[in-house]
Design a protein that fits this description.
Chain lengths: 303, 303
């Protein structure tokens, strides 16, 4: 998850208490009766330095003995839940059943991992990404992404519940009071735009007056991981950094792209965004830190 | 758990389809939002030959990585839940939430372990054992047994909900149609009597006309494991096999005791029960099988 790597690079550069991360929850899903929030957990685990870096999800060195045993009871155990990771899902599920909000549980989990920054779900109400795939109908996001490994032609991406969702407590205030806002290198359709589409979020972003920088999730015109290329194509956008930039044109003022996509600069500038060309491939934590530093510097100069 | 060991000894001696095990559920408890049924699981795991024999609960070779990770979120993780064992609790909890009965879930679990015998919870309604301990108030059973390691003087044993509980579907029919009934060597207060106290159970037992044999859980006047001695003393009963026999006098006709308690025979016979003296210590599966064989022979001759 590019966003998590970017955040991990950002963390040493700023006072953690000044960092608020607003996280997509549209790929939350229920497995074996547990409320799983993949993006929230990836952000928390990555910021805490305990995530499985290569795999991109879950906890480092985790085992899968419970999942293996679940195979005795369930036909389908394609969603990978590690034994230690399960503790987070159990805790979250039990707390939500007791009536706590996702915001409160997310805070408790971050605290349990000793994090000082603030991690907020985008909303306490459920919003779910559904992917319409040619010939396969409309799929839940994890079904599409994990079980079917994102195969097939994307015809549409829907956000069920987006109209009714309110921003989680603290989201609008954090945006309004921001000095700088980053849209990290993530899939816009299933990670960034869902947040921006929640009632009041775009307005808060504008009201803040803070500069907004987006980092392209494409490198050399292709996603580092995941089905973003199919999603761009399937929704009528160019499969390119400028294609992504067009999604943020009314929001961001700076758009950061990789050197391999330098030729896109012109098209990006035409959209009214300032194009910044740098190395965006975060192969190591050091590179993530360097990229975050560049973005912060650009934001500072954009004020 | 003596009952589970006894059942494991019994299994090779009879056609599994002819065996119905009715299991106490009064020590069921909720941990981390999961519905845990310790006695049902011990019976299922033991009959399936996958239980941790020495420890007496859980699955052989199980690990505790999730429980360890739960320590990050919860102050108290004294109830031991193995990683593979967790799959059973997750499956049960989810199925119950979907509206399935404990009876149905128990059948599914037994089936998943390839068991052909029938395992029934005593009731689909919750009944809970509460132990009143001098100076500690009234405690939930697992709190008393596991967390406090059964310390302290027992003043009373209560069964919350027993008045409202109905026998699980199949329980009365199984009893009525039985050829022989065994009360295995378990704690009468928290394992056997709760079942007998459910509305209609004693009558079904009598209506069946089947001989009933009980096996004393005491050897040499002491429990092999657990706080039965304190419970007998605390409720005004003799801490002896005849003390236990007195609890079954209106139910059983045969009472099996260990050689070390042979001197109890007379007192037992006085209660109107036939005393059978044999080796009741089930140190090995072979010994459990031998004990089960003796009990079956006594039941056959008692018809």
């Amino acid at each position: 998850m590019g966003a998590a790597r970017f955040l991990r690079g950002l963390l040493p550069l700023i006072e953690p208490r000044n960092l608020t991360v607003i996280v997509n929850t549209t790929d939350d899903e229920s497995f074996f009766g547990l409320h799983v929030s993949p993006d929230l957990d990836t952000v928390t685990y990555t910021l805490a330095g305990v995530s499985e870096r290569k795999r991109g999800w879950g906890l480092q060195g985790d085992t899968f003995r419970c999942l293996d045993a679940l195979g005795r009871y369930y036909d389908e155990t394609w969603f990978q839940l590690g034994d230690r990771d399960l503790a987070t899902h159990l805790f979250r599920t039990e707390a939500l059943r007791r009536g706590r909000t996702l915001t409160a549980v997310t805070r408790d989990i971050a605290k349990a991992f000793g994090l000082d920054c603030r991690i907020l779900p985008m909303s306490d109400q459920p919003v779910r990404t559904r992917i319409e795939v040619r010939g396969a109908g409309t799929l839940d996001f994890q079904d599409y992404l994990v079980r079917r490994r994102a195969r097939g032609e994307v015809r549409a991406i829907r956000l069920a519940g987006i109209g009714k969702a309110r921003p989680a407590p603290g989201v609008l205030k954090a945006l309004r009071e921001s000095d700088a806002i980053v849209l990290p290198p993530s899939n816009p359709f299933v990670s960034i735009l869902p947040i921006l589409k929640i009632r009041g979020v775009k307005r808060a972003l504008r009201d803040s007056g803070a500069p907004v920088a987006a980092v392209s999730p494409l490198i050399g015109g292709a996603p580092v991981k995941g089905p973003l290329d199919r999603m761009l194509a399937g929704t009528g956008h160019a499969v390119s950094s400028s294609g992504v930039a067009s999604l943020y044109r009314d929001i961001a003022s700076v758009f950061v792209i990789d050197r391999r996509d330098a030729a896109e600069s012109r098209a990006i500038e035409k959209l009214g965004l300032r194009a910044v060309v740098t190395d965006t491939y975060m192969k190591t934590p050091a590179r993530a830190r360097k990229l975050a530093g560049t973005v912060l510097a650009e934001l500072a100069s954009a004020k």
